[in-house]
Automatic annotation (TrEMBL):
<feature type="binding site">
    <location>
        <position position="6"/>
    </location>
    <ligand>
        <name>Zn(2+) 1</name>
    </ligand>
</feature>
<feature type="binding site">
    <location>
        <position position="272"/>
    </location>
    <ligand>
        <name>Zn(2+) 2</name>
    </ligand>
</feature>
<keyword id="KW-0808">Transferase</keyword>
<feature type="binding site">
    <location>
        <position position="159"/>
    </location>
    <ligand>
        <name>ATP</name>
    </ligand>
</feature>
<dbReference type="InterPro" id="IPR011063">
    <property type="entry name" value="TilS/TtcA_N"/>
</dbReference>
<feature type="binding site">
    <location>
        <position position="25"/>
    </location>
    <ligand>
        <name>Zn(2+) 1</name>
    </ligand>
</feature>
<keyword id="KW-0460">Magnesium</keyword>
<dbReference type="InterPro" id="IPR014729">
    <property type="entry name" value="Rossmann-like_a/b/a_fold"/>
</dbReference>
<dbReference type="Pfam" id="PF01171">
    <property type="entry name" value="ATP_bind_3"/>
</dbReference>
<dbReference type="InterPro" id="IPR000541">
    <property type="entry name" value="Ncs6/Tuc1/Ctu1"/>
</dbReference>
<keyword id="KW-0479">Metal-binding</keyword>
<dbReference type="Pfam" id="PF22082">
    <property type="entry name" value="TtuA_LIM_N"/>
</dbReference>
<dbReference type="GO" id="GO:0002144">
    <property type="term" value="C:cytosolic tRNA wobble base thiouridylase complex"/>
</dbReference>
<dbReference type="InterPro" id="IPR054306">
    <property type="entry name" value="TtuA-like_LIM_N"/>
</dbReference>
<feature type="binding site">
    <location>
        <position position="3"/>
    </location>
    <ligand>
        <name>Zn(2+) 1</name>
    </ligand>
</feature>
<dbReference type="GO" id="GO:0046872">
    <property type="term" value="F:metal ion binding"/>
</dbReference>
<dbReference type="InterPro" id="IPR001763">
    <property type="entry name" value="Rhodanese-like_dom"/>
</dbReference>
Amino acid sequence: MKCKFCSKEAYIKLHYPKTYLCIDHFIEYFERKVQRTIERYKLLRKDEKVLVAISGGKDSAVTAYVLNKLGYNIECLHINLGIGEYSKKSEEFAKRQCDLIGAPLHIVRIKEVLGYGIGEVKTRRPPCSYCGLTKRYIMNKFAYDNNFDAIATGHNLDDEASFLLNNLLHWNTEYLAKGGPLLPGENKFVKKVKPLYELTEREVVAYALAVGLDYIVEECPHARGATTLDMKAILNELEEKRPGTKFTFVRGYLKKRGLFEVEVEKKELRECKICGMPSSGEICAFCRFWGLKEPLTFKVDRDEDNLRGT
Ligand code: Q46
Ligand code: ZN
Ligand code: ZN
């Protein structure tokens, strides 16, 4: 098949709207769509300092690559989770990706700052529960300590659609109130944005391949992603039969999100006694879990030439 816009062979068939595109026109389409998402949802301005959280995987690498190409002022943060070989490999990929992108990379290794890797802590909590807490805290604290205006993550359309479906099936209204491409900053919470919000996972993979971004494909050994994978498989089946399902579902949700917001009580936040970050209790969940007596600080010395290993 030929590209819709030129005489070259098609690189990809887009399902919605059904179009064949050559590699160059696909790259152009993808980048234009990211730019439109940023504008439609007022995610970022060109004068803002953006921290991209990169895991070594495809979505975050593509986010950093495209934002950089579109002229946004980005730096990257990789959190090494201390999960054996998996984390070593992830860090290697993150470094290679940032070399290709030409963006500064900061690395926080949680084993170095907290003493244990994910999965090594003696606790009843499953690794993913305190991993999520730890990643969210470090991302925000790093951005806050270094005066970033926004944190960009690699969530794509499939991630959002499967998150919504799963939370609708369980009527987790609190989570349903918090979806969407933009979580505005408030207090000491830095604004969070998802520039790939309207692009499918398939498009993200095709873009990564098209621009030569290498990424880790192995799953984390703690991943119990069966639910997400089930949701994604169901949505892909629906999409196959009715192209545009995911997009309509997510767009519709954004219109109806207010229904869930009214259900959520606004919690009064105070400052954590240890780290000073917002907390519902006297000590925040992060400091409590890791038993901290002193706050962690991530202030980067800007005179350092090589930002790696901070
Ligand atoms: S939460 Fe769980 Fe992930 Fe952390 S422990 Fe691995 S699978 S990395 S997205
Ligand atoms: Zn073309
Ligand atoms: Zn704290």
